[in-house]
From TrEMBL:
The keyword Membrane is annotated on this UniProt entry: yes
Ligase keyword on record: no
Top-level taxon: Bacteria
Name listed for the protein in its UniProt record: Na+/H+ antiporter NhaD
Transmembrane residue ranges: 12-44, 56-76, 88-106, 126-148, 168-186, 198-222, 248-267, 273-296, 317-335, 355-383, 395-417, 437-455
Keyword annotations of the record: Membrane, Transmembrane, Transmembrane helix
Coiled coil location: none
Length: 456
């Protein structure tokens, strides 16, 4: 009976989130309160199935939030209203699997991964090829591309020494994840920063692309040089014959056309209805994915496969439910106290030294990642601290480092999703992955800071 309940959690989660989005347009106070009470229930049913790390984080946010809430002398009846401010982020994550599904049923991923299956005579050649392939797939598939790329590389390198193979895979795939997502409109850290700073996504896009491509190029050149003298046997072709380069380029071109159309749709909806970026993306994902599936004549497969993926992902959102709802309570309570002033003080001491501010932002991400705090938790606190500085410095420059810092540390955060996933897929110690990618994280962050200084 208990398993059947958790198998149908997607109904409860999506129902609450749908009503929340609906009430953004209706504006009923009584309904907002019911949604807040539902958020309490969401935490209650999610806690038993959440991982230990998120249980600890959620508990810390709730306990510290309660301490600040009561110290501010607030009425306990207001607690439910403090829990819902991150609901748009949960709705965004809930709908994200639909756009991943249309990429999968269109078989774009299967053809593009052929770039890694072409024979390479040394690991240096395979390094930049696998880095570039994973980068492209990551833009559209997010975490799904990590498993896909690592599976292909494991098969392609099955005759390579395990230690060397682990080193190679933990660099190419994890780094590509960070590099691809800093400019993706479907990356939650990008959406949060766009809304928080009030700077258009189109302003950020060229700068984020520049940071991403500069770092990608540097890492590809270093990797090619590092591994070029190590020969490799022909790649495993058991998954079928190689796909021609022409077909691969056509698929990549189609994906980028789809991405451009998606961005146009998001910006149009945002402008016409006066919606913030996160909400506009959330509302566009499902209809856009559906029209895309119809256009490529994969509608039936899309609705069947997409529903199963969406249901499975939504049923297992416990970690994000715990994180976002507890974080909303923490930040809303923090805003009601004088404690925020103490947290802001180190940053305000350097309000005439923008370089120091940007370095502090990056180091805060790095430190918090090392102790297991999710970048979303870090950015929520940083935004509360940095908002007064938006009137002092160009918020676009601060926003760049908020995005780059979050994604750069994703490549070396020991308890992060990508590092943990790579550890499980390859059977290696996550701390070893962290140490291998730490120099890359520092390089990535430094480039981000230098580019941001151009805007400050």
């Amino acid at each position: 009976m208990k398993n059947k309940f958790y198998d149908r959690l997607y109904v409860f989660y999506s129902g609450v989130l749908f009503v929340y989005i609906l009430n953004l347009f209706l504006g009923f106070d009584w309904l907002a309160y019911i949604i807040g009470l539902s958020a309490v229930a969401m935490i209650a049913v999610s806690f038993p199935k959440a991982s230990n790390l998120f249980k600890i984080l959620g508990s810390a946010f709730i306990v510290s939030g309660l301490a600040m809430f009561f110290s501010a002398g607030l009425d306990v009846s207001r607690i439910p209203l403090f829990l819902t401010s991150n609901m748009p982020l949960l709705a965004f994550l809930t709908l994200l699997p639909w756009i991943n599904s249309v990429v999968h049923v269109g078989k774009y991923d299967q053809q593009i991964k052929g770039m890694m299956k072409e024979n390479a005579d040394n690991l240096g050649s395979l390094y930049y090829r696998s880095l570039g392939t994973t980068y492209i797939l990551m833009t559209f598939l997010n975490l799904s591309a990590v498993n896909l790329s690592q599976d292909v590389l494991m098969k392609s390198m099955k005759n390579v020494n395990k230690a060397l193979r682990d080193n190679f895979i933990s660099k190419t795939t994890v780094r590509a994840f960070s590099l691809a997502l800093i400019w993706s409109p479907m990356e939650i850290m990008v959406a949060i920063t766009v809304d928080a700073t009030g700077i258009s996504y189109l302003v950020y896009l060229p700068w984020l692309l520049a940071i991403s491509l500069i770092t990608l190029t540097i890492d590809a050149l270093i990797g090619r040089q590092r591994f070029k003298n190590i020969p490799i046997e022909p790649a495993d072709t058991s998954n079928g014959p190689p796909v021609s380069a022409g077909k691969i380029l056509v698929q990549i071109f189609k994906l980028f056309i789809a991405l451009i159309l998606f961005l146009i749709s998001v910006l149009t909806v945002s402008h016409l209805f006066g919606l913030n970026f996160i909400l506009a993306v959330t509302l566009v994902i499902l209809p856009f994915s559906s029209l895309w599936a119809i256009f490529i004549k994969r509608w039936h497969m899309f609705k069947v496969y997409g529903f199963e993926v969406w249901k499975a992902r939504t049923n297992h959102m416990q970690n994000f439910i715990i994180l976002f709802i507890s974080l909303a309570f923490f930040t809303n309570s923090l805003n009601e106290t004088a404690a925020l002033g103490y947290v802001q003080r180190p940053f305000m001491l350097f309000n005439d030294q923008p370089a120091v501010i940007l370095i502090l932002i990056f180091l805060t991400y790095l430190l918090m990642a090392m102790i297991g705090v999710h970048p979303i938790g870090t950015i929520a606190i940083l935004l509360e601290v940095l908002t007064p500085l938006f009137d002092v410095f160009n918020p676009a420059g601060i926003g760049l480092v908020l995005i780059v810092g979050a994604l750069a540390t994703a490549s070396s955060g020991t308890y992060g999703v990508t590092v943990t996933m790579t550890s499980m897929n390859t059977g290696q110690n996550p701390y070893r992955i962290t140490l291998r990618n730490l120099p890359f994280t520092l390089l990535f962050g430094t480039i981000g800071i230098l580019v941001a200084m151009l805007l400050i």
